[in-house]
Amino acid sequence: MDVVAPADEEPTEAVDGVHLSLLAGGERMNLQRFEIEPGAVVPEHSHPHEQTGMVVEGTLTFVLADGTERAVGPDETYALAGGEAHGAENRGDEPVVGVDVFSPPRTDPDWQD
Question: Which pLDDT score, from 0 to 100, does residue 110 have?
Fold first, then answer.
């Protein structure tokens, strides 16, 4: 059994104001914590991994490739198919904190390059 507390991992600033920490994972999935500062933007991207997540604090606005926007607030969950292009923005006044699950595991995301 693997136990990883967010305090045990040093977050990486993927893009300005977007902090990511890889947490526990297995052979078929892994967990990532994110904190996105007010005004920060995750640019549009895609990856082969299925992604599900939950916002714990704040509201995160996803922007899909077709221009659709979906706001996800505290205790709400979301799912993105592998290959689905998406970006995200924190348009609020407080940090957005949440977790993502990736399958297969996302052990070498672009932000680690």
Answer: 59
